[in-house]
Amino acid sequence: MISVDEALSHLFSLVAPLEAESAPLQDACGRVLAETVTARRDQPPFSASAMDGYAVQSSDAVPGARLSVIGEAAAGHGFAGGLSQGQAVRIFTGAPVPDGADRVVIQEDVAREGNTITLGDQLDEGPHIRRKGTDFSVGDAMKAPRRLTPSDVALLAAMNIPRVMVARKPVVALISTGDELVMPGEDPGPDQIIASNTFGLKAMLEEMGATARLLPIARDNTASLETAFDLAEGADLVVTIGGASVGDHDMVGDVAASLGMERSFYKVRMRPGKPLMAGRMGQAAMVGLPGNPVSAMVCGHVFLAPMIRLMLGLGEAPAPRRSARLAQDIDKGGPREHYMRATVADGTILAEDRQDSSLLSVLARANALMIRPPDDAPRAKGETIEYIPI
Amino acid sequence: MISVDEALSHLFSLVAPLEAESAPLQDACGRVLAETVTARRDQPPFSASAMDGYAVQSSDAVPGARLSVIGEAAAGHGFAGGLSQGQAVRIFTGAPVPDGADRVVIQEDVAREGNTITLGDQLDEGPHIRRKGTDFSVGDAMKAPRRLTPSDVALLAAMNIPRVMVARKPVVALISTGDELVMPGEDPGPDQIIASNTFGLKAMLEEMGATARLLPIARDNTASLETAFDLAEGADLVVTIGGASVGDHDMVGDVAASLGMERSFYKVRMRPGKPLMAGRMGQAAMVGLPGNPVSAMVCGHVFLAPMIRLMLGLGEAPAPRRSARLAQDIDKGGPREHYMRATVADGTILAEDRQDSSLLSVLARANALMIRPPDDAPRAKGETIEYIPI
User: Fold this and answer.
1) What is the dihedral of CA B358, B364, B368, B373, to 10 degrees?
2) Do B295 and B191 share a structural domain?
3) Could you please report the per-residue DSSP string of B188-226?
4) How far is CA A247 from CA A24, A220, B75, B94, in A?
5) Which residues span the domain enclosing B83?
6) A41 close contact with B: CB closer than 8 A
7) I want to staple B128 with a disulfide (CB 3.0 to 4.6 A). Which of A109, A265, A366, B51 is the partner?
8) In terms of domains, do B25 and B163 share one?
9) One domain, residues B262 and B381
10) Residue A136: inside a domain, yes or no?
11) What angle do CA B306, B312, B317 make, to 5 degrees?
């Protein structure tokens, strides 16, 4: 058996960062920036008023000063001329500060009569001017790779970047295998169950930034499996679910091998989800996940998510972990790394009582996979432990 | 001035939960379940083997026992008959356990010759059977409202639920206002800047589960604003950005009022983002946000996100908060609730040095809004403080 990290290294060797494509800014949130972007302008592009008031020379900004209003500067409509001592320009937030002015007196501190203003008794410190380039300057960079957030999108807009190069979305084909499966909404026979893994994995992969294709269920015979692999044509990653253990009826590996896959089979020292098949199949990577519903979903978080991130250009790294304090004492762990369904609230983590890998109801109410390393010692309530948020 | 909570109460009174619509399960992740769903079957629907091995009677599961193999049960293909003492049925993971059997002996513990098996010297405790209904039973509920996760989608599939009723996505129309604005990719004049807020807010709203419509920029004149409001027809929420402060050139409120909006204007005791306009306008709620880029984005997190959640049926609640330990001592706070751009890493929060509300570059590298209540006392490094993740 190999460790989770060793299995991940094998899986990383099967995929590579995908090419970049151009996306309009309004569709770029959540995508991964593939090429560093530099600002096409300064922000603000001119020194701008931060308040509504009057632009003046700072030497004139003294209590009781009387100044002559010579014009107006609004956002989008600057004052064309310059400003001398004794003069003021009515100014609004966002307007360019006129040449010669270096101070804005807020309108609450000003009394105006006709074209004359008188400053109040107590003036604030000012200057209420946002200097040209305070936010960013031409050439300032947003560095790739980076998964774009709403704030990033706002910043890119301000930089005058209407389109960005982002990593193409990985296409993942999902194949459930097994004579026992029917699709949701169908009428299962007495020995059958509903295919659930592909639906859960599709949702998970799309949250990660992939495009998932749900293929028809493959039956436990060569022709049906071959058809499924044919339908997966064009995918970057083909994921089969079920048929990856060692029973006489698990034929996914044989069929994949007959179609040219250089097949590796790993027993990974983990719970749940021990058996894992992987290889290259033509242009695609192929991963065979175990068929137990919870095992498949846990392997999605532990193995597929890092592969997707690598394809998106985010590098080789295991699933991001956080830590929380144990809500209870726990016994020593077993020989396999255990990803326990658990609930994190207010920085405290509580493992579910029932950890059987068939229990989707337990997985659905969990929000974390608490990680116990192999042969973990007993731990006391209050100790911190790592988990993967799910 | 009113508090953030008072402002939120006003905003909540402008919107209501939206109607439900049917969505296929494969498109339901991230949507909010609007009607409680009950399982249409037991899971497993029959007692099923958890391993590959042999189904036997537990009284026969003793070291060295010799049993006669009378048939085979595979996933999807159960064994039709019953099983008596002295008999075994070859069984695979997921197959129905034959009548009469109550134990599976794993294949590693069995030696087979023809149709006779001999059990090994050391047997595990078993029984390696997943009892009917262990995961869930007919009628077990997934309760609405609930934002569906990938695990929920897997569970719903297993319950044989092909479609679910989810809250309709709120439609939000976004209107930037101001003569100073041009769209990204255009060639701004010397007094102009690029519209960034609508792009950032669109991305934020869509992450929250809304559909956002980016309308053309409205200019600072009545006709242009009226056109923009016309184009917002059909939206559940109309959001204007800019024109919500008190300068002579802020005419959004006047035009909205002339179009029938019952206008309320609030000064909210918060930084950034003090001025806020709100009201009902025909079938839609209308909110006017301040024009400073960071103010608009912060108001999006603090005000728009809770409104969206209410429309999605998730109830009235402010933006969810977490807590972290302060990375540094901080001085006493000001009279307004301050949403400081900050970075959280490893449970520790560090506020950015520059908090000016024009700095999108600072917002983009932050991942949290650290919340200082009004008139907050000084705080020491290591104390916990609340924040909104962004």
Assistant:
1) 0
2) yes
3) --TT-EE--HHHHHHHHHHHHT-EEEEPPPBPSSHHHHH
4) 49, 12, 11, 11
5) 48-130
6) yes
7) B51
8) yes
9) no
10) no
11) 30
CATH number at A173 reads 3.40.980.10
Q: What is the CATH number of the domain that holds B354?
A: 2.40.340.10
Query: What part of B 251-290 touches A (C-beta under 8 Å)?
Result: none
Contact A197 B347 (CB under 8 A): no
Residues 308-367 on B with a CB inside 8 Å of A are 323, 346-347, 356, 358-364, 366
Amino acid, single-letter form, for residue B364: A
Rounded Cα distance, A120 and A151, in Å: 39
> Are residues B304 and B232 part of one domain?
yes
Q: DSSP of B244-292, one letter per residue?
A: -SSSTT--HHHHHHHTT-EEEEEEBSEES--EEEEEEETTEEEEEE-SS
Token pair recorded at residue A184? 């949701």
- Same domain flag for B232 and B244: yes
SS3 at position B164: strand
Average pLDDT per 10 consecutive residues for chain A, totaling 390 residues: 93 97 97 97 95 95 97 93 96 94 96 96 94 96 98 97 98 95 94 94 97 95 93 96 65 88 86 88 92 93 98 97 95 95 94 93 97 96 96
Q: Report the SS3 class of residue A218.
A: strand
Quick one: B203 and B285 in the same domain?
Answer: yes
Q: Is A136 left (phi over 0), alpha (psi -120 to 50) or beta?
A: beta
| Helix A150-158, helix B197-208: angle, nearest 10 | 160
In a domain, B316, yes or no: no
Are B231 and B298 part of one and the same domain? yes
- The total domain count for chain A is 4
Q: Are residues B153 and B281 in the same domain?
A: no
Tokens of A253: 């590996």
For an interface test with A, give the residue of B47, B155, B198 to mutate (most A CBs within 10 A): B155
Report how far residue A60's alpha carbon sits from residue B321's, in angstroms, rounded to the nearest whole number: 47
